Amino acid sequence: MQRLRAACTLPRPVNLPWTFAWTLHLGAALYACNLAVGVSAQMFHAKFGAVHHWLYGVVFTAAIAATVLAFHPALPITILALAIMPLTKPGGAAHPAVATAGALGYLGAYLL
Asked: Model-level pTM?
């Protein structure tokens, strides 16, 4: 009888010893780096375009990973800002405003 009972029981859920919060930290750090590259390019009229755009792709990928793996309700704000970013002109007022809105998504994930 005990063998039958042991064979019919469901396995216990496995508690994983790791967390995916590192994706949030990685995404926020990459976002801050890209923000710094963009601000320095705008302030010093430097030509960081290729690096800034390559880093944008990495930042977008990290933001999606953070939203999926370490979900917080504020993170879709960052995804939305990154999706809107290519529609803004780099020299215009909308570009840094959208970048700031994306940073607020990460800030909200840390503070709320």
From this structure: 0.81
